[in-house]
């Protein structure tokens, strides 16, 4: 019985330590937007109430960094509202598609427990449109772009805004590896080389 009590007590102390450590770490990482607007998660406003409009997603996250990553992974998210101290069964992370929110300055102190933060995380480094429909064609990968909703990283042999265009490697000698004594035939996403009549080889080397 004493052993069980000691184990439970030790675990409780460990949990309290981790909670305190996370809270302290969060407070030390918060960066004011005006002093460092290029920080991945700079604070726009402190002590604000919860968002009422333009909420595109809500979740519960352990730290504001996780809330920021959730924003970075969402196609239309540009900022998020985070509440550090909240009940375990309440949302504490609100994602939004605009930074232009009119907060109620007359809200009570009990309501003003959120922090409004801009998301400057490089989406291309964070995620490749996870959870979104891939709108890129021909095996292209949809990646985040800071200027437009998304961009496409095309597979070899394709180009275009959504990788819809097949590259004709045969239209330019420098775009293919066919021997000078071979015919180049364009194929979807690639090309074939075939030696001329009277020549032998794999098409890339003919003799």
Automatic annotation (TrEMBL):
CDD domains (alphabetical): EGF_CA
Domain of life: Eukaryota
Record key words, sorted: Disulfide bond, EGF-like domain, Repeat, Signal
Entry annotated with the keyword Disulfide bond: yes
A GO MF term: calcium ion binding
Keyword Transferase: no
SUPFAM superfamilies: Growth factor receptor domain (SSF57184)
Pfam families reported in the protein's UniProt record: EGF_CA
Disulfide bonds: 154-163
Xref: SMART domains: EGF, EGF_CA
Record's protein name: Neurogenic locus Notch -like
Organism: Paramuricea clavata
